[in-house]
């Protein structure tokens, strides 16, 4: 920790929406009078029918129920598009920057209206109705945003699946959502390489069953097999449908989307977000956290397959009438200057990315950054995992030339939007700290027994009352929602994160305290990787833990016990890595596989992950109590055969 504090720059305290006094006052009001505060904030969106009740929420595990603005009606696409037409029809809504620096496209609000309406009519032509689930498996092309907004327009529920997931992972999500329609592309393009999206969608549809339409957007124009009756090219039907499509009137609590995310147990959960509260919350956070003003060019580098892409590429920015940049490529293609070149090309004011990208670019040195101008930049953001102070300092000094504040935003798929964050005109920054709670957010740090800790302390992070962007349930499994989030610390939302609060009341997220690992900003359950490994015919048992990784934050370390008669070998190691990539997707590739004749277990048969974590972290001296192990000698073997991690 550098211990350094960065004051709010003088020009920022002048131009920002909020200074520290305004933050303090609004924060106090937001938590002492949530009905008044959020009732007013709901005025940032158009309502078809006004609500009469603001907050109706309970975290009581016998009756977890979260409703905001429940009797009002509105439509998300209307708020993100139609209502802007009169004042900003010719303003650019989306700047698309392709993987190849020569490819780009600008889409005005008027054009967005036409594209989304047409897309909505195409979905209708394929029988999609209000409440139906549509799976979107697309690369980062404008059609991904069109498809999401088209669903919102007609009241369909989208489930976006990251293009890096395997056919199996995609199939699981299609099945769980009971989705009959998949929107995909012939192929995706990333870093100059093709991704066989349609082929993956075909395999997933076969596995999942129940898919009656695969809508194919042409991205590379590669020839892909098309199954008659089921598969159709988007542009072929788009020509045949009207350009005009009215917005469905949606209840505030009607579902907007499902997004699958990993937890510590079982299969990924379908996190369900609804209409009005989510939109109000993403809009207010996008405005204040990024201090978004009319005319700013805003760029979030996330993929729409993750919640950051949903909330801060599409919904928050478009609700605010912003210009949002959508990037198809990767940070190091064609060179390590790509991010900074895109910033110069499109005069980006606000740039929001992930620590893993910052660390990777930092390793490439200052030169690729310094050869670009970046003079348009005035604010930097970070999200997805804790940012180490070294990376923070480099981002601030080299990328932002000491003039751009950094907003380190902590939040989750479940929270819908940012919960702990600096506000650039109000908050002094400490590198590595997400600083203070956003409006309406009441964090609580608890000890293992669930006691509330006060003042400077460290423990597990809970949130004690609801905010409008909170997930409403696990799709199709409300009991799992209650069990996962409200039972560990009764009556409180448990985030799964560890957290320290310092003497200034600043929050420092220390990472997950459950069996979730965060690899390059992607959430993975260790249980998911384990079940992929044990599905291999030569594997009898597997235990997976995270370990510190210079660029990815955490790497994946897998201990594997083979079936009797199988011999460890380099070939088998490579085969298992390839197997996990195929089962889950490249993001889940184990970095290290250690073959272990047996795993450390308690007498009741539970694997002692604490020990496995220590060995993976190279902390042999500090293995803690091993006396409860059924066979303590197992540990010596593991230590002696530890694999060097990359
Ligand atoms: C938005 C997003 C959520 C988990 C979360 C935490 C980690 C996210 C962070 C951060 C420290 C930050 N996380 N932002 N940790 N500082 N600024 O990433 O959602 O994919 O659901 O991941 O990511 O561990 O619990 P999601």
From TrEMBL:
<feature type="binding site">
    <location>
        <position position="523"/>
    </location>
    <ligand>
        <name>ATP</name>
    </ligand>
</feature>
<dbReference type="GO" id="GO:0005524">
    <property type="term" value="F:ATP binding"/>
</dbReference>
<feature type="domain" description="Acetyl-coenzyme A synthetase N-terminal">
    <location>
        <begin position="23"/>
        <end position="80"/>
    </location>
</feature>
<feature type="binding site">
    <location>
        <position position="308"/>
    </location>
    <ligand>
        <name>CoA</name>
    </ligand>
</feature>
<feature type="binding site">
    <location>
        <begin position="190"/>
        <end position="193"/>
    </location>
    <ligand>
        <name>CoA</name>
    </ligand>
</feature>
<feature type="binding site">
    <location>
        <position position="536"/>
    </location>
    <ligand>
        <name>Mg(2+)</name>
    </ligand>
</feature>
<comment type="function">
    <text>Catalyzes the conversion of acetate into acetyl-CoA (AcCoA), an essential intermediate at the junction of anabolic and catabolic pathways. AcsA undergoes a two-step reaction. In the first half reaction, AcsA combines acetate with ATP to form acetyl-adenylate (AcAMP) intermediate. In the second half reaction, it can then transfer the acetyl group from AcAMP to the sulfhydryl group of CoA, forming the product AcCoA.</text>
</comment>
<dbReference type="InterPro" id="IPR025110">
    <property type="entry name" value="AMP-bd_C"/>
</dbReference>
<dbReference type="InterPro" id="IPR011904">
    <property type="entry name" value="Ac_CoA_lig"/>
</dbReference>
<feature type="binding site">
    <location>
        <begin position="384"/>
        <end position="386"/>
    </location>
    <ligand>
        <name>ATP</name>
    </ligand>
</feature>
<dbReference type="GO" id="GO:0016208">
    <property type="term" value="F:AMP binding"/>
</dbReference>
<feature type="binding site">
    <location>
        <position position="534"/>
    </location>
    <ligand>
        <name>Mg(2+)</name>
    </ligand>
</feature>
<feature type="modified residue" description="N6-acetyllysine">
    <location>
        <position position="606"/>
    </location>
</feature>
<keyword id="KW-0547">Nucleotide-binding</keyword>
<comment type="similarity">
    <text>Belongs to the ATP-dependent AMP-binding enzyme family.</text>
</comment>
<keyword id="KW-0479">Metal-binding</keyword>
<feature type="binding site">
    <location>
        <position position="539"/>
    </location>
    <ligand>
        <name>Mg(2+)</name>
    </ligand>
</feature>
<feature type="domain" description="AMP-dependent synthetase/ligase">
    <location>
        <begin position="82"/>
        <end position="463"/>
    </location>
</feature>
<dbReference type="Pfam" id="PF16177">
    <property type="entry name" value="ACAS_N"/>
</dbReference>
<keyword id="KW-0067">ATP-binding</keyword>
<dbReference type="GO" id="GO:0003987">
    <property type="term" value="F:acetate-CoA ligase activity"/>
</dbReference>
<protein>
    <recommendedName>
        <fullName>Acetyl-coenzyme A synthetase</fullName>
        <ecNumber>6.2.1.1</ecNumber>
    </recommendedName>
</protein>
<dbReference type="Pfam" id="PF00501">
    <property type="entry name" value="AMP-binding"/>
</dbReference>
<dbReference type="GO" id="GO:0046872">
    <property type="term" value="F:metal ion binding"/>
</dbReference>
<feature type="binding site">
    <location>
        <position position="497"/>
    </location>
    <ligand>
        <name>ATP</name>
    </ligand>
</feature>
<feature type="domain" description="AMP-binding enzyme C-terminal">
    <location>
        <begin position="528"/>
        <end position="606"/>
    </location>
</feature>
<dbReference type="InterPro" id="IPR032387">
    <property type="entry name" value="ACAS_N"/>
</dbReference>
<dbReference type="InterPro" id="IPR045851">
    <property type="entry name" value="AMP-bd_C_sf"/>
</dbReference>
<keyword id="KW-0436">Ligase</keyword>
<keyword id="KW-0460">Magnesium</keyword>
<feature type="binding site">
    <location>
        <position position="512"/>
    </location>
    <ligand>
        <name>ATP</name>
    </ligand>
</feature>
<dbReference type="InterPro" id="IPR020845">
    <property type="entry name" value="AMP-binding_CS"/>
</dbReference>
<dbReference type="GO" id="GO:0005829">
    <property type="term" value="C:cytosol"/>
</dbReference>
<dbReference type="InterPro" id="IPR042099">
    <property type="entry name" value="ANL_N_sf"/>
</dbReference>
<dbReference type="InterPro" id="IPR000873">
    <property type="entry name" value="AMP-dep_synth/lig_dom"/>
</dbReference>
<dbReference type="GO" id="GO:0019427">
    <property type="term" value="P:acetyl-CoA biosynthetic process from acetate"/>
</dbReference>
<feature type="binding site">
    <location>
        <position position="332"/>
    </location>
    <ligand>
        <name>CoA</name>
    </ligand>
</feature>
<dbReference type="Pfam" id="PF13193">
    <property type="entry name" value="AMP-binding_C"/>
</dbReference>
<feature type="binding site">
    <location>
        <begin position="408"/>
        <end position="413"/>
    </location>
    <ligand>
        <name>ATP</name>
    </ligand>
</feature>
<feature type="binding site">
    <location>
        <position position="581"/>
    </location>
    <ligand>
        <name>CoA</name>
    </ligand>
</feature>
<keyword id="KW-0007">Acetylation</keyword>
């Amino acid at each position: 920790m550098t211990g350094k504090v960065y004051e709010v720059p003088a020009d920022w305290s002048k131009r920002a929406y909020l200074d520290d006094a305004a933050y303090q006052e609004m924060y106090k009001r937001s938590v002492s009078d949530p009905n008044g505060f959020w009732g007013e904030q709901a005025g940032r969106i158009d309502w078809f029918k006004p609500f009469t009740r603001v907050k109706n929420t309970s975290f009581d595990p016998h009756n977890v129920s979260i409703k905001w603005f429940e009797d009002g009606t509105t439509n998300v696409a209307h708020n993100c598009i139609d209502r802007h037409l009169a004042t900003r029809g010719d303003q650019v809504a989306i700047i698309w920057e392709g993987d190849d620096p020569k490819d780009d496209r600008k889409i005005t609000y008027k054009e967005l209206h036409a594209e989304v309406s047409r897309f909505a009519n195409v979905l209708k032509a394929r029988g999609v109705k209000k409440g139906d689930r549509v799976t979107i498996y697309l690369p980062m092309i404008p059609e991904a945003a069109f498809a999401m907004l088209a669903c919102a327009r007609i009241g369909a529920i989208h489930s976006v699946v990251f293009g890096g997931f395997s056919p199996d992972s995609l199939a699981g999500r299609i099945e769980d959502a009971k989705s009959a329609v998949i929107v995909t592309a012939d192929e995706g393009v990333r870093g100059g390489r093709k991704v066989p999206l349609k082929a993956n969608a075909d395999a997933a549809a076969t596995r999942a069953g129940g898919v009656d339409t695969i809508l194919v957007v042409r991205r590379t124009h590669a020839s892909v097999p098309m199954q008659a009756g089921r598969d159709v090219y988007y542009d072929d039907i788009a020509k045949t449908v009207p350009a005009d499509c009215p917005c469905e009137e949606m209840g505030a609590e009607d579902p907007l989307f499902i997004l699958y995310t990993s937890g510590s147990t079982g299969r990924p959960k379908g996190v369900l977000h609804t209409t009005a509260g989510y939109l109000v919350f993403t809009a207010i956070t996008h405005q204040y956290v990024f201090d978004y003003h009319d005319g700013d060019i805003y760029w979030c580098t996330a993929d729409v397959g993750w919640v950051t892409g949903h909330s801060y590429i599409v919904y928050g920015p478009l609700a605010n009438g912003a210009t949002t940049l959508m990037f198809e490529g990767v940070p190091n293609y064609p060179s390590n200057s790509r991010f900074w070149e895109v910033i110069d090309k499109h005069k980006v004011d606000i740039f929001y990315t992930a620590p893993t990208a910052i660390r990777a670019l930092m390793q490439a040195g200052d030169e690729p950054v310094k050869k670009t101008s970046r003079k348009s930049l005035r604010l930097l953001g970070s999200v997805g995992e804790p940012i180490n102070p070294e990376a923070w300092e480099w981002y601030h000094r080299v990328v932002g030339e000491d003039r751009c504040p950094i907003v380190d935003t902590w939040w989750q798929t479940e929270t819908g939007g940012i919960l702990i964050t600096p506000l650039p005109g109000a908050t002094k920054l400490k590198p590595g700290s997400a600083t203070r709670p956003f409006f309406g957010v009441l964090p609580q740090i608890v000890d293992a027994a669930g006691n509330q800790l006060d003042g400077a302390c460290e423990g597990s992070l809970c949130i004690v009352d609801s905010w409008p962007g909170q997930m409403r349930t696990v799709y199709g499994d409300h009991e799992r929602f209650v069990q996962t989030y409200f039972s560990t610390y009764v009556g409180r939302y448990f985030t799964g994160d560890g957290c320290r609060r310092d003497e200034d009341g600043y929050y420092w997220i220390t990472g997950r305290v459950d069996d979730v690992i965060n690899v390059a900003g992607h959430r993975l359950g260790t249980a998911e990787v384990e079940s992929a490994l044990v599905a291999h015919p030569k594997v009898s048992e597997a235990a997976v833990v995270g370990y510190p990784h210079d660029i990815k934050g955490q790497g994946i370390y897998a201990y594997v016990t083979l079936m009797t008669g199988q011999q460890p070998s380099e070939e088998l190691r490579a085969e298992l890595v390839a197997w996990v990539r195929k089962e889950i997707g490249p993001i889940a590739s184990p970095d290290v596989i250690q073959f272990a004749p047996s795993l450390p277990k308690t007498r009741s048969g539970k694997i002692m992950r604490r020990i496995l974590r220590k060995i993976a972290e190279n902390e042999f001296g500090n293995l803690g109590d091993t006396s409860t192990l059924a066979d303590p000698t197992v540990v010596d073997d593991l230590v002696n055969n530890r694999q060097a991690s990359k």
